Amino acid sequence: MDLSIQSLDDSSSEQGDELAYRIASFISIPLEYISYMSEYMLESPVGYTLQSLETLPKPRNLKDLDETRERFQELMSDELKLFFKVPNQQIMSTTTHNLNANQVVAFINFLLLMVEAILWFDPDFIACIKGSIEILRTELGFLIAFLGDTAMHLQPAKNILIDIEAVVNEVGSFFYSFLFTGLVFMMIHEEEETNSAITGMEAVLNEVRSFLQTTSELEETNNSMTDIKPLVNEVGSFLVPEIGILDLTLSDLLPKFELLKTKIKEHCITVSKMPSDTAPNTSLVSLFIVDSVLDDLMHLINNNSDRIVGVDDQIVMLHEELMLLGSSVTNIAVQQEAEHEELLIRTRDIAYEIEYVINSSPHVWYLTLRLPQLFEKIQLIRMSIQEIKNKIDTAEMPEVAKYPVGQVSSQSKEPLIKEDIVVGFDNVAIKIADQLVRGTEQLQIISIFGMPRLGKTTLANKVYNSPSVANHFYACARCVVSQRYNKKDILIAILSSLKNLKKEKFENMDDESLAEDLYKSLKGRRYIIVMDDIWDIEVWDGLKRYFPDDRIGSRILFTTRNKEVGLKGVINALPFLTKDECWELLQRKVFQDKNCPQELLDIGKQIATNCDGLPLAVVVIAGVLANMEKKEHLWQKVAKNLSLHIFQTLDKSNQIFELSYKYLPMHLRPCFLYFGAFEEDKDIPVRRLISLWVAEGFVKKEERKSLEDVALGHLMKLIDRSLVLVAKRRYDGGVKTCKIHDLLRETCLRIAEENKFLKVVKPFDDPPQFLSQVSKYQRYHCLSIENGLSPICSLPFGLHVRSLLCAFAESTSVPGSLKILRVLDLGHDPDSDGIGFEHLVHLRYLAIIIADDILPSMESFHKLEYLYVDNTSAVKIPDVLLIKVSLRQMHFMGRAYISASFCRQATKDESFQINSNLHSISILLIRSKMDVKVLKCFPNLRRLKVEFQSSFNYSFDLLNQLESLKFSNYERCSNLINLPSNLKKLTLVGVHVSPEQMEIVGKLQHLEVLKLQEVDFEGEQWDTSEGEFPQLKSLKLNRVKIAEWNTSRDHFPRLQRLVLELCYLLKMIPPSLGDIPTLDMIEVYGCAKAIIKSAKKIREEQEENGNEKLQVIISK
Fold first, then answer.
1. Phi, psi values for residue 101, rounded to 5°
2. How many CB atoms lie within 10 A of CB 270?
3. Angle, CA 300 vertex, CA 294 and CA 301 arms, to 5°
4. Which end of the chain is more exposed for a tag (fewer CB within 10 A), N or C?
5. 795 or 355, higher pLDDT
6. Number of C-alpha atoms within 13 angstroms, CB side, residue 802?
7. Which of 122, 117, 119, 144 is closest to 133 using CA atoms?
8. pLDDT digits over 72-115, tens only?
9. Could you tell me which InterPro entries the record lists for this protein (predicted)?
10. Do 495 and 506 touch, CB atoms closer than 8 A?
């Protein structure tokens, strides 16, 4: 019998198939578990057992019945039963000799996955056992919570572990029987086509009973079937197929948990009297966890009184005590001396302990035992703080920083990000540029070779962007290859760069289609392609046939650390920077256009010399110096540390990177280390990154600033320190995507893993040992899974994991051991079924892909702040989401709509407000006037993307906080009435606009970015007036239906960037736009020849007038 879920889809119209589908989902969990665990069995014919499970014969005749009887005997074998008990040293090859908590947690986690699969059934199907199963989930969840509370296990706990093992083994026996019942039912369901309705578990048991007891007809010809009943009885008394027997068994089982809890209470009381300390989680020294836990406590006080009945006053007191502790330790630890750092560590650890105790959903009686212990530990830390305070002369105590940061500059203003400063390599750059534009007419490879950190990419970009090269080639593109390259990704990157289109435009194309498109795009055109960070010549060998050689001087520019890659062309070896060049680069990075003070000259040159000619090392150490006070004794300290590191190791640059990390303010350290969770050489969307930081609790509230704005400030500080690179900018100059240098990422990952902050899990490269996953991962703050197969194989069971980022996971059943999870990103899983989501009550960030139009239940996500849904068809937004006070952003890639009933409720009451914290929604379908009216219930919306599906007058002027609006209407309607006065960015897609409506847009006093895409202008003409667009900085016209554009330089007084894409009707770019003093760039892509001609004319006129600042980029 094929037990795959997919095999059931073909018969989904038959009655009973829904139940069969759910049972098959349940069965898949133990099958997968057995399959995975069998890899670690010492000796067992488990492979044959699995085959028996998956190939049960259909009893069409007596011969099949005999075979079925034999297979049932195999099913009830001791080998299979072993998998439904806590694994031990007798059957496993990877466990220790003695029972440990990790083995028990791993097994309970498996049981909880099966519990969640049962509760995923339709409630009517499991009505007879639902209540008992929910109690079982609660009790198993508590056992995991207890086993994860490491402060209760610092002393030997062998006896209590044995008691827990005995109870959970009985639960395993119950699920063994449930599996047996499910297997029999699946066999019956596949064999028989019945018209009888299967309404619930009673019906399932009836069918199984009927099958096992119907022997009258068969006995006339063969008595073999009668032997099946004794075989069934071997499974256990609870397998007798009578209605309600499963519930009866649970009723017998659940009281045993009460006895077990009594023993746990006794154990906890005993342990509490023993000397203990807080078991550390991450070793990262940072206090963000204190603020995070304070928020959790406040939420518990305000919203979950039922969970803390009887201890509510103690929870309030705990909040007050922790707040005082956090304030005290921050004030005392201004200078990062060893004794102060120890206080930081102790404060951090008690905060993590409090977080686990209150968020792991323990029973109230457990809290009554644990809270006094937490108070005692806080008091001990505060006593230590007071002792230090008594030794300090408060009159001489320096001004307290908000975070202990270590000699940071007191400047509050964020420095502007400067463009890349390139020092040295002038002769090499001239030489390479000459190789690109001169020489042979054949297609030629030019390579820049050098060791890591030398600046190969910077030099390649400098040459690529130089006017002599940019104006010589008709087609230009760049891509990053890296060590772990993917052919399709490279083709997409080149096409995206070549055509100036988003990568998403090409993702649905196969490799051959991409290759064909690339070849045709380059054929007959002189092109230059930069392939950055190519490690192996085989990459080029696999791609070169897609690059035509028309003997017109096309070039391929490599950057590589492997000299052999460039042997088929011209090799340019990149030298180290000289001492003078290092000093010049350091000086320009630290002081910009100013001169270095005389007292810092000698020590500055010493630091530059110690960077050994590595540009990246100079840039990183400059980031340290630029962000501290310009005092000689502080620079001397940096030089001393730098010299010490350099004399101790050959890997000097890595030590420089570590030194730069050491000098980071404490609140920036987790933000920096988090970059290790993202794939190498991938651009990171800034909005996603910021959302993750906020959800993680890294960002502290600041007065009159949103959390997102504070987080953006953190990012800008990291960029300013040269630890993070700007990958792409927005049209208004802001950072759209960022990335981290691959070498910095290596340092980042090493520091993160050493501090148990972040672990990148690669199941295919390093398969996790099932029973060691708890101990291996439980202390990490964040787990990033690069690839995986299933919840058993790829989702680790870390009890203290706060975030789980999955690049690939074919199943999304969430382990019950993830008690305190705050971030769950299942971004590459199209089959999110939501099993186990219900217990993720502390989730702040959820990113999922759904294949249909149904979201998983959102009821339990009381703290959810960010929701990202990648959907293919429009989904209805659950009403419960709209009333969640915590929700800040929700994004639906495939569109979403608000229910009609909710709209009616919201629009009847003028004072009705739903969520005052929601500030970003996309993409929202607007189907009626009610949908527009309901938006007034979100008064703090800042970003909104809407798509209209009907024609009526619409106005957004009530959204006073709205700063960014994307408005799509493919009905070509022209009923725009009013727009919010504070709007800074406006995108119009697929609309028809009249002169009056464009006048409304022009009068927006704060508008900085305007994008018009597929917009039809009335009369194909756009006339602007004086006083319009007073603050507009960026204007983009894409496929607009306009022939005449009548405007003046005075109508766009602050315009900096003008982009025209695929504008075929427009006759010319108004010449006066070139005279706008602020205009830096005109970009023309795929436009009519008249547009290209007018763009070139503007460039020539401006050059004649001495305007060398204006750049004109033209791509056909």
1. -60, -30
2. 13
3. 90
4. C
5. 355
6. 24
7. 119
8. 555 555 667 778 888 764 444 444 445 677 778 888 888 888 88
9. Apaf_helical, Disease_R_plants, LRR_dom_sf, NB-ARC, P-loop_NTPase, RX-like_CC, WH-like_DNA-bd_sf, WHD_DRP
10. yes
Which percentage of the chain shows pLDDT scores above 90? 25
pLDDT at 833: 56
The predicted-structure confidence for 562-571, as pLDDT tens digits, reads as follows 777 877 888 8
Q: What's the angle, vertex CA 166, arms to CA 161 and CA 170, rounded to 5?
A: 140
Report yes or no: 207 and 15 within 8 Å, Cβ to Cβ. Answer: no
Grouping H, G, I as helix, E, B as strand and the rest as coil, residue 247 is helix
3-class state of residue 823 by DSSP: strand
Cβ–Cβ < 8 Å for 986, 1010: yes
Short-list 277, 371, 381, 273, CA closest to 333: 381
pLDDT at 117: 82
Vertex 1036: Cα angle to 1032 and 1041 (nearest 5): 120
Name the residue type at position 618. V
Q: CB of 7 within 8 A of CB of 25? A: no
1066 and 1091 Cβ atoms separated by less than 8 Å:
yes
Model pLDDT for residues 532-559, shown as the tens digit of each residue:
988 888 888 888 899 999 999 999 999 9
Helical H segments across 849-895, by residue range = 879-882
Sign, Cα dihedral of 809, 810, 812, 815: negative
Q: What are 654-708's pLDDT values in tens digits? A: 776 777 788 788 889 999 999 999 888 788 999 999 999 999 999 988 888 899 9
DSSP string covering 1044-1055, please? EEE--GGGSTT-
* CB-count exposure of residue 191 (10 Å: 0-12, 13-18, 19+): middle
Give the Å distances, CA to CA, from 67 to 60, 70, 171, 223, 253: 11, 5, 30, 14, 34
Which of helix, strand or coil describes residue 306? helix
Count the residues in the chain: 1116
Contacts of 152 (CB under 8 A, 6+ apart): 146, 267, 268, 271
- Whose tokens are 């050959």? That residue is 650
- CA pair distance 1115, 1093, nearest whole angstrom: 12
Distances in Å between the Cα of 259 and the Cα atoms of 198, 256, 262, 348 are 38, 5, 5, 35
Region for 592 from its dihedrals, namely left if φ exceeds 0, alpha if ψ lies in -120 to 50, beta otherwise: left
Q: What angle do CA 1062, 1063, 1064 make, to 5 degrees?
A: 100
- 218-269 per-position pLDDT tens digit: 443 343 333 333 333 333 333 333 334 555 567 788 899 999 999 998 888 8
**Dihedral angle sign, alpha carbons of residues 661, 667, 670, 674:** negative
Q: What are phi and psi of 23, to 5 degrees?
A: -65, -40
Whole-model pTM?
0.77
Average pLDDT over residues 996-1006: 92
Q: How far is CA 434 from the centre of its chain?
A: 44
